[in-house]
Every structure is written in C-alpha cells, then in structure tokens.
C-alpha cells in the first residue's frame, strides 16, 4: 500500500464521520420538533456505514489495485423506525383527541454519546493522516 492509498482511505473515513456528525447534530437540533413539513414529528436519522466486499480472488485483487479501486467506506442516511414518544399534554397545539403529543424518537443522551464516539473516530483518522504525512516527509528527508 502506498502513502497516497493510505491518505485516500483515511479521507474516506473522514467523509463518513463528517456525515455522521452532521446527522447526529440534526437529530439533536430537532429533538423537540413535533410537526414537520411531512405532518408528523421529526424522525431520527441514522448513518449506516458499508465497506466494499473484499476481492474473491487474487486476480480480482490485482485488478482492483491496478485500477486503484480502494476499499472505501460508503455511508448512507436512513430513518430510524422506532416508535415516537407519546406524552400527555392536552394543552399542546399538536395534541391528539386524547391529549397526547407525539415527540421525535430522539434520545439526546444517546445522540451525545454517539457524537463523542464519532468525534473520536474523526480524530483517529486525522492522526492517521498526520502519521502518513510524517512518513512522507521522512522519506523526502532521506532522499536528500
């Protein structure tokens, strides 16, 4: 694996964690939204990470390496289908006939824990990129 390959892989991890941090921030910002443009409460979003499947043969691995098809992290955002939280608030403008209000399925404590975890993963990728940069600089220094 070359130094540029290592940079590209870590760059992919940074992109994935950035998307996760943005999604978690959106969840926190909308934790109390009872009515969206779609009509119901805000539905929590989750980021799903997927890695490309490993090559099945040496020939496929060699072809991927020649074409620089890296194992990249792809991320997609999906809706969390857990039920909404119902609270009895008969004076709330969004209360139903029985006086219950549907709140988003966002748990702020869980979102903050996930946010810290994602920030740590982001920091680890930055540290790996800095290590690759240091190795490249040392290689240049050795050539002098």
Polypeptide structure, described:
There is one protein chain. With 144 residues, the chain is of the alpha+beta class. It has one domain (3-31, 45-79, 106-142). Helices cover 49% and strands 15% of the residues. The chain is built from three helices and four strands, in the order αβαβββα. It has helices at 3-29, 58-66, 108-142; strands spanning 45-51, 73-79, 85-88, 100-103. It has a two-stranded antiparallel ribbon. The protein has a two-stranded antiparallel ribbon with strand order 3-4. The protein is elongated. The two termini are 23 Å apart.
Question: What topology, given as strand order, has the largest sheet?
Answer: 1-2
Low-confidence stretches: none
**Gyration radius, in Å:** 22 Å
Tell me the number of structural domains.
1
Secondary structure elements and their pairing?
Blueprint: H1 3-29, E1 45-51, H2 58-66, E2 73-79, E3 85-88, E4 100-103, H3 108-142
Helix pairs in contact: 1-3
In a few lines, what is going on in this structure?
The chain is built from three helices and four strands, in the order αβαβββα.
How would you describe this structure in keywords?
single chain; 144 residues; alpha+beta; two-stranded antiparallel sheet
């Amino acid at each position: 694996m070359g130094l540029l390959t290592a940079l590209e892989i870590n760059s992919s991890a940074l992109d994935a964690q950035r998307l996760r941090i943005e999604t978690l921030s959106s969840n926190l910002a909308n934790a109390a939204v009872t009515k969206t443009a779609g009509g119901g409460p805000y539905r929590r979003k989750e980021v799903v990470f997927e890695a490309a499947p490993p090559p099945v043969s040496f020939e496929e691995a060699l072809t991927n390496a020649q074409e620089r098809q890296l194992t990249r992290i792809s991320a997609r955002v999906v809706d969390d289908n857990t039920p909404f939280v119902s609270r009895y608030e008969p004076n709330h403008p969004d209360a139903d006939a029985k006086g219950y209000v549907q709140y988003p399925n966002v748990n702020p404590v869980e979102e903050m824990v996930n946010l810290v975890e994602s920030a740590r993963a982001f920091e680890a990728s930055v540290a790996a990129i800095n290590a690759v940069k240091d190795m490249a600089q040392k290689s240049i220094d050795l050539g002098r």
